[in-house]
Design a protein that fits this description.
Elements: E1 5-10, H1 15-23, E2 30-35, H2 43-48, E3 51-54, E4 70-73, H3 79-82, E5 92-94, H4 103-116, H5 119-127, E6 143-147, H6 151-162, E7 166-170, E8 182-184, H7 189-195, E9 198-201, H8 215-218, E10 226-229, H9 238-246, E11 252-255, E12 275-277, H10 288-305
Parallel strand pairs: 1-2, 1-3, 3-4, 4-5, 6-7, 6-9, 7-8, 9-10, 10-11, 11-12
């Protein structure tokens, strides 16, 4: 009898993952256990688990899994995993990078259209039966700057270019990118800030990007520019952004991610005119479990066959 590899799915909705394992023909090669997020694995489960899929784990769990060789994080961002004080050095960690590629570009384009077109104003005027004509701001000919030209950034660039926007941005390795007029290394970020009518943040959360958008960099932007953050909440120094928007140093900001979520009711983002608070809706998708399941099952097959994984986390880079 073939020995089955023990896999633990530590998440609340497991149907898509169990189905994907079945469809991939891997059911006979794995022994799958499921666990809700509020529960903790038993000592027996921790002793036998060889592969783990989870959103996050508390300290003390991973070192108690002596057979664990691979973890599939269910999110693209892995700062929580890398912050674990006892993350084993020899453990392979893969992330869910790329599983937001359907939802997030659409939502980012939606945010662009929201700030450029007077639809929200028209809805408010309708409540008062007021006929107010205000020309919509054209996107054609404007410049979209993207800090972090990864998979999501490239998809946004493709759609934005079709809408007539000129796209520029930064990338760790600044080779040419389709639909992007200019690609700069990170140290030339000021040039992107100065040119952008809309600045999109898609950088990962690393020590180098913490508070990346601060008073100094906000001062490099056009007074008419909008800031859109769909990356990580830690990219922005909150007080500096609030001050810049209030002083009209930039036109405003659309925020989808925050240092603390849910955003506390007392946070000044809620009440600052010119700052639009979105409740982290950029990445979620009604079928996102299916997207993550495809990646997980592909990596599970590679794990079983001893082949290289997809979306391995570079611990030194932080993503």
């Amino acid at each position: 009898m073939t020995r089955r590899t023990h896999v633990l799915l530590w998440t609340d909705s497991t149907a898509a993952y169990l189905e994907a394992i079945e469809v991939a023909g891997l059911s006979d090669r794995v022994a799958v256990e499921t666990l809700s997020r509020k529960d903790k694995p038993s000592a027996e489960q921790m002793a036998r688990t060889e592969a783990l899929m989870a959103y996050a784990v508390p300290p003390g769990v991973l070192p108690a899994m002596p057979k664990l060789r691979w973890v599939q994080a269910m999110t693209a961002g892995v700062e929580g995993w890398l912050a674990l004080p006892d993350l084993p050095g020899d453990l392979t960690l893969t992330c869910a990078r790329g599983t937001h590629r359907e939802a997030m570009p659409e939502n980012i384009i939606g945010a662009l259209l929201y700030v450029a077109k007077p639809y929200a104003e028209a809805v408010e005027n309708q409540k008062q039966r007021k006929w107010v004509q205000r020309p919509a701001q054209p996107l054609t000919g404007k410049t979209l700057g993207i800090l972090g030209l990864g998979a999501i950034g490239r998809d946004v660039a493709r759609i934005a270019a079709a809408l007539g926007l000129r796209v520029i941005g930064t990338r760790r390795r600044p080779e040419p990118v389709s639909d992007v007029a200019e690609v700069f290394p990170a140290d030339r970020t000021p040039q992107v800030l100065a040119q952008s009518d809309f600045l999109l943040l898609l950088l990962p959360a690393t020590p180098e990007t913490d508070n990346f958008i601060n008073a100094e960099r906000l001062a490099m932007m056009k007074p008419s520019a909008w800031l859109l953050n769909f990356g990580r909440g830690h990219l922005i120094r909150d007080d500096d952004l609030i001050a810049a928007v209030k002083a009209k140093k930039i036109a405003g900001a659309v925020l989808d991610v925050y240092r603390q979520e849910p955003l506390p009711a007392e946070h000044p983002f809620w009440s600052t005119a010119g700052i639009i608070v979105l409740p982290h809706i950029g990445g979620p998708h009604p079928q996102r479990d299916s997207f993550v399941a495809r990646l997980f099952v592909e990596n599970l097959g590679r794990f079983l066959d001893g082949k290289p994984f997809r979306e391995v986390v570079d611990r030194k880079a932080g993503y």
